[in-house]
Design a protein that fits this description.
Blueprint lengths: L5 E3 L28 H17 L7 E8 L5 H17 L3 E9 L11 H14 L3 E4 L5 H11 L2 E3 L1 H12 L3 H15 L25 H34 L5 E7 L5 H9 L16 E7 L2 E7 L9 H5 L2 H8 L3 E7 L5 H14 L7 E6 L5 E2 L3 H4 L4 H6 L2 E2 L1 H12 L4 E2 L8 H19 L20
Parallel strand pairs: 2-3, 2-4, 4-5, 6-8, 6-9, 9-10, 10-13, 11-12
Antiparallel strand pairs: 1-3, 7-8
Length: 463
Amino acid sequence: MPKFGAILLKINPWECRNVRPKQNEGTIFPKFVFPTRQNLLMSKFSRKLQKLHDTAPKIETAVLVTLIRQQQSDQEIEEHLEELAFLAETLGVKTLYRFTQRMEKPDIRTFVGKGKLEEIQAYLEHFGVDMVIFDDDLTPSQMRNLENELKVKIYDRSLLILDIFLQRAQTAQAKTQVELARFQYLLPRLTNMWTHLERQRGGTGTRGGAGEKEIETDKRDIRGKITLLKEKLREIEKQGITQRKGRKGIVRVALVGYTNVGKSTLMNLITKTDILAENKLFATVDSTVRKVVLENIPFLLSDTVGFIRKLPTHLIESFKSTLDEIREADLLVHVVDVSHHAFEDHIAVVTQTLQEIKAGDKPILLVFNKIDQVQQMPSEEESQHISEHELQETRYVDFKALSDAYEKKNGIKPVFMAAGLGENVEGFREALVAEVKKQHRKIYPHYLEDEVVDWSGKWEESE
C-alpha cells in the first residue's frame, strides 16, 4: 500500500478514521482506511434508503487526485489541492476527499499506481462518489482505463475548466468557443460515461451505460457539431474583425491576471458598469470592452478571462477574442491579489502565459489589489512587540521591497489598492492616466498640446 493518503473532509467517524503518519513518512495527509465488508454493505444500504426519501436536488460529489513531484513542499501540494477544490466548487461539485501519491511520472495506463487505484476504488464504492477529478491532464487512454476501472466519471483539469467556461459563458462568441473547445477535447476521450453530450450543457453531465454503437453515434454527432461550430465561429470572428478595425487610432488597455484577483471589480470601478464580479474562479469568461475618457484622453479598456496554473495553451487559444484583446493592447494592467500567500507564483504563471501567447513584450502596469487584507511587514524592532500568535495569523507584505523589485523589472511603478473598498483609487487613476498618455503620444504626438475640453476627474464609458 502506498504511504501517501489524503486530506479527509466531512466524513462519518464510524466509516473512516484518521491515521497519524509514521515519523519520516513525509506527508501531512491522513490515510484512508479500507472499510470492512460489513460497513460497505451498511453504507450501500443507507445510500439506497436515502435515495428513497431524499427529494432535494442532488449535489454531485468528487474526490481529488494529484501526484507529488520531487521538490514540492507540503504547503505547495495543499495550495494546489485547495485550488482544485475551488474549481470543483465553482462547478457546483462537493469535494469529499483528496488523494495524493508521490510519483515523478504518471503511470502510463492509469495515471496513479495500482495500490493507489485500489484505495481510490474502495473509497468510491464506500461513499458512492460521483466523479474523480485529477489535477493534471489525462491522455485519452488513461481516461478510458480509469473509467473502466472506477466506473464513475473522470475529470481531468482541462475538462473541469472547460465545463466551468461553458457554465459561465454569456455571449454567443464565448459560448461557441467553449463548446467547440470542449467537443474537440472530448472527442478522442468519449467513453460510456460521456454519452449524449447534447444533454449535458450547463452542468456536469450524466452517467450512462451505453454500448459501443451508441458511442460511435455520439462521435459522429460531435464531429458534425464541430463542423457547424467552426462555421458559426468564423462568421462571428468576421464581425469582430470589422469592429476592431473601427477601434484603430485609440489606445487599448487590457486587464490581465490570475483568476479571481478582482479584475472585474476594477473594471466596474473604472467604467461605472455592472460587470459580474464574484468570488469564484473564472467569474469572467467573456471579453468585455468599454470606452473610457480620463483627462481628455479616450482609450478602450477590456476585461479578459483570468489565467490559472496548468491552463494548457490550447485552451487559451480557444478564446481567440480574449487573445486578440491582449495581443492588440498597447498597455496591460496586471492585477494581482496580494493577500494570497502564493501571489508571486500567480505573477509568474501570468507572465509565462503572456509569453506563450506572444504578448510578453507589452508595457505592464502592475496593480497589487486587496491590500486591505494584508499588513505592512513590521521592522525587526516592531516585531518584538507583536505576539507570536499575531505574527503567525497575520499576512504581512513588505510593500516597499515589492514595489522596488517590480518597478525595476517592469520599468513602471506598481500601484497598491483595494478595489472592492475603493481604497487608493486616485493613485491608480493617476498611474493609469500617465501610462495611457505615453501610449497616446505615440499615436497622436501633438494631441495634448491642443486639448480644449476638461474631462479631469470624470469616468466615461460606452459600448
